[in-house]
Structure formats: C-alpha cells, structure tokens
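Hi V.,

You were right to ask for the full record rather than a summary. Here it is.
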Amino acid sequence: MICTTIRNGEECVFMTKNGCSYKGGACNPIVEACTGCSRCKEYETGWYCTAAPDPALKWKNGDCNLATHVTMTVKEEKAKLNPIKASKRGGH
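Predicted structure:
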C-alpha cells in the first residue's frame, strides 16, 4: 500500500488500511553509519532508508547487508607450508 506516515506517496510493505503496522507506527530515521549510502533519501521529516524501516537494527551486529557504501574485503591468508614437504619440492 501507499505510505501515509513518513514516505508519503511511496509503496510500503508495512502500510495497512489501519495505518503503519511497523512497531511504533512509523519508520525510524537513519543512523550515522548510513551516511553515504545510496538507499538513504530525504523526506519532509528527515533522512530515512528506503530499504529498511529501522536502520539501527541493520548495523547492530556489524555492517548493514544493504549498505551500498560499504565494500567487503576478503582477507587472503597464506597457507601454512610444511617445511619437510617444501624441501622435497625443491623450495617451490
């Protein structure tokens, strides 16, 4: 349904005939960690996430999985090399 609380005129999964069904009756504003994300949008009442109704919960246990400004870095660990096997290979 179309939101009538925070995101006026936009589609919202929490909107019902009786109003917003999300806890508290409305979406929560973004947190500081959301700054720079392309999913943040400014409305009349402030900045809100277009993907999550409560951005603070997305950042609670680490990085938000919907954040567009956070890049995942993969650590490459050098495999342990057995010195005995290495000597048999000729040091390669």
